[in-house]
Write the structure tokens for this entry.
Amino acid sequence: MSGPAHYCFSVFEACAETGELRRQGLRVKLHSKPFTALLALLERPGAIITRQELQQRLWPDHSFVDYDNSLNNVIGRLRQALRDSPYAPRFVETVPHRGYRFLAPVRAQTGAAAAAGAAR
């Protein structure tokens, strides 16, 4: 894996290799699509990730889905796992008519540092 394998923000840790989200060391149940959306946001904190970028990342094979409702559902599930609110976001901000932005500071780790963090 070329990019960061492990992201830390607030009381959360996300491991790209295992697909796990942890809150204060305890695993948080999060399905693959919301986790993939989280990774897209964590890779570029502070930047607007467009709805189109997320659509291509979540459904790369151009699956037949209602993208708008499906993406809204994915982001809703992600916010629920992070205990975040769309009205007073700490993590995932909606940028109207554009996409989403990750607000919290993110610390990304690769290689041995990520493995050591995941072993905790």
Summary: The mean pLDDT is 89. DSSP finds four helices and eight strands in the chain.
